[in-house]
Write a structure and sequence with these properties.
Length: 324
């Protein structure tokens, strides 16, 4: 009897919910970014925000909440934000796929349980680079050097970052063991690369592009399945001879799990339209970013596959971090 009453009440309220969803949004939308201004996630959010204003008819305010590889902002969205679509997150591969597998302690959210996928936004390649003075001119030479030179080093912007795990993936696929040297930021990594402090790195496309064009770094390959438009002459890792090496550094948009599906669909439609605008595509490509929108269900499936992929690699390599 109680279950029947609940079902009847839900049916009675259904007509009221639909007009509310159609009216969404009714106030400004807060787009959280889990990293400091100037990074990749922040850049993507600020490219999309003014165009989303046009589509949604409300201000879209980008708010940076940096900390613990994106965990701080993601945990806030999952546990404290209202599930009404007015607070969303520009999530990253770190917070949505890597961190749930990386930390020994619980991170305070479960992506499957606590987050609702809206859409992937962009794919970003990492670029395998060496200093311009390096004797290594292609990936085969680098792999051979990794096998014969026990002291070969690669840098990253921190343990568990996409650049670090790209190096772990290289080790796994080639049977090599270059020494990982983590830095505190992408800027620190670039300084080390330019000074020859480390032999190579999988640097973000945004960071590497200017240095490659300036002749200070040499690009050997990109980590994505397809070549990057802004580095069209640079082969993929697969083309360069490392079968199975695909490592996208992606950014996607999520909401709290209980957000009504009509609101999710409204946000998805707006994001997909914005990501298809020629001026947005051009602005992203100038930063070695490719628009890659998906439906909510496609993005959910993609995130689960990415968590499984990186989780397996992290466990096999024994990579962990203690504190969140």
């Amino acid at each position: 009897m109680i279950n029947r009453r609940i079902a009847c009440a839900s049916l009675a309220l259904a007509p009221l919910a639909q007009p509310w969803a159609q009216a969404f949004p009714v106030r400004p939308i807060q787009m959280l970014v889990g990293f400091a201004p100037g990074g990749g996630a922040d850049l993507v959010a600020r490219v999309l925000a003014p165009h989303l204003v046009q589509e949604l008819g409300q201000p879209v305010i980008v708010e940076n909440r940096p900390g613990v590889g994106g965990n701080v902002a993601t945990r806030y969205l999952a546990t404290e934000a209202k599930a009404d679509g007015h607070t969303i997150l520009m999530g990253t591969i770190a917070a949505l796929a890597i961190n749930p597998n990386l930390y020994k302690e619980k991170i305070g959210y479960d992506p499957d349980r606590d987050l609702a996928p809206i859409t992937n936004a962009v794919d970003s390649c990492n670029v395998l680079v060496v200093p311009a003075s390096s004797p290594l001119h292609d990936v085969s030479q680098l792999v051979a050097a990794c096998r014969t030179a026990s002291s070969l080093t690669y840098g990253s912007s921190g343990v568990g970052t996409a650049g670090h795990l790209a190096g772990v993936l290289l080790s796994s696929l080639t049977g090599t063991k270059p020494l990982h040297v983590p830095y505190k930021s992408g800027g620190g990594l670039m300084t080390a690369m330019l000074s020859g402090e480390v032999d190579f790195s999988f640097a973000s496309g945004v960071t590497a592009l200017a240095q490659v064009r300036g002749g200070k770094l040499r690009a050997l390959a990109v980590t994505t399945a397809r070549r990057a438009a802004e580095l069209a002459q640079v082969p993929t890792m697969v083309e360069a001879g490392v079968a199975g090496f695909v490592s996208n550094n992606w950014y996607g948009i999520v909401a709290p799990a209980a957000t009504p599906r009509p609101v999710i669909d409204r946000l998805n439609a707006a994001c997909v339209k914005v990501l298809g605008k020629p001026e947005v595509v051009a602005a992203l490509r100038a930063q070695v970013l490719e628009a890659s929108p998906m439906s909510p269900d496609e993005f959910g499936t993609f995130m689960r596959a990415e968590r499984a992929k990186w989780g397996k690699l992290i466990r096999e390599a024994g990579v962990t971090l203690e504190s969140v």
